[in-house]
User: Fold these one by one.
Assistant:
Number 1:
Amino acid sequence: MSAQKHIVILGAGESGVGAAILAKKEGWNVFVSDYGMIKPNFKATLEANAIELESGTHSLDRIMQADLIVKSPGIPDHVPVIVKAKEKGIKIISEIEFAGYYLKAKTIGITGSNGKTTTTMLIYHILKKAGLKVGLAGNVGQSLAKQVAEEDFDWYVLELSSFQLDDMNDFKVDIALLMNITPDHLDRYDYQMQKYVDAKFRILQNQTAADWFIYNLDDPIITAEVEKRTIMAKKAPFSLKEQVKVGAYLNEQQITININEKFTMSIHDLALKGKHNTQNSLAAGIASRILEIRKDVVRESLEDFVNVEHRLEFVAKVNGIEFINDSKATNINSTWFALESMTQPTVWIVGGVDKGNDYSELTELVKEKVKAIICLGKDNQKIIATFSGVVDTIVEANSAMEAVAYGYRLGSKDETVLLSPACASFDLFENYEDRGNQFKAAVRSL
């Protein structure tokens, strides 16, 4: 990339600030623009690096001078600044794509509607335990661009959302994982499922016969797409239903990984419980064995992994009532897995910003598992309409504190209060982490 070309970075969060640091190091003329207010720590980092910035506005004249725009994955394509830049023919990419211009390390990329964070963290855990020089980036960890600028890793484990993949064209992952595809973020894809599916399959772009594609054989959308597409990479599916020659599967309470010699392990020894977590363990196990990580390291890692915060996270037991924080469940499928793993009568806290949810998909599970529903959102009518007549008790709360108080009142000994919202959090909270943290604080104050 030519020195002294103009780069504009839209959004000054983790990814934007990281891209700015890398761009500055590589000799670009850098301008950072955030339509919102920049958080003090990010602003201080930009200023310390003598990077020009603006906050609370987009100066269109200045932005349109860019040779390249790096945009935050949270900025949709229909906002005026993006529309205008596209009309002018300015190239727009993601921070991951920009980092890729300077990346020398190899990469494992994980995407899917659900399970990608857990699988990403699990693979990172295994690689670290194996002694590899490995970084963690994408939707978790630090900005990839910042690490490319400042670190010297041999491998990166990347959690990639469809939004990030949308703005990636030349980037290639050496090992691609596709966990599952269920309706999510359809508001960003004109409510067309195929557009969302195509975004997820972008993880395969630029792969060669030397690369690997790990995918969920039990997912009907993925298997149909795999049949339709020409895939260059070596394929390694995982399944809970059928045995596979190259890949991994579950059979009679035992997982088998058929990559570089057979590896077997009882599911009772896995740290992560539940069917969806068995899939995550199978996928992570395949990736590890492709890298020829020793079996004893893989086994030990699958046994001692501690799951990510806000994902089916045990908070406390108060007078025999168990409180579980699954705030990261921002779609129906995530919440389906959470409810499916409940073994006690459950008071379910649900609601927030609806992304086109069809709550009826949960009806059978709710009938079986849920004794009461607490709606935690500004607009709960769709939830109430779906579950009236299915659950006798449905109440509404306007804060995490109020929701937890209701949960404590409606729950009994040997029952569970589960926060698994199936929705985004932006109506009442800053993000899902804020929602989960407020929930945990409220539980601990009981």
Number 2:
Amino acid sequence: MRPAGYCVIDRIRCKWCGSEPIYTEYHDVEWGFPVYDSRELFELLNLEGAQAGLSWITVLKKRSRYQQVFDNFEPKKMAVYDEIKRTELLSDAGIIRNKLKVNAFIENAKAYLKMEALGEDFSGFIWGFVDGESLLNGYTSMAELPAQTKLSGSMSEALKEKGFRFVGPTICYAFMQAAGLVNDHTIDCFRRTEVPSVGF
């Protein structure tokens, strides 16, 4: 949903989103807005992993195809992908055809289901790193934004222990920014004060 008073032009935004429409709309509508749904968080974590070594806009442009070929990131479906399905994925030009990343998605689905079987809620686990509340930062420029933090390092270690892959500290911090665990809209950005700063 577009934020109230949304306007494509005449807005001061975080400089990283530039002026390309798909990027500005993602910034205005999604980035930094708290996500609590476990499946949506799982999808976002995987897509952030797909970004490794690339730009986010590359993944963003392919997101709809990812959702289609990965069964809308339903862990129960992904966890049972066989070699035929893996081969199909690696031949699909609509996604990033990286064997390690594709396999990581599948292993992540298995790790997610293992947590679920143990009675551990994925959303609760993720938001537990910030005690259920979005952290509002006060960066004035892009140069001040960290690539990773002590908190993202802790999340990375915990996810790896549970069997997740492509969840390094930098990927985890990008995930935290995107999912709204931290509000890293710069202080001059119109979206900074419109994003809820309290979680559960």
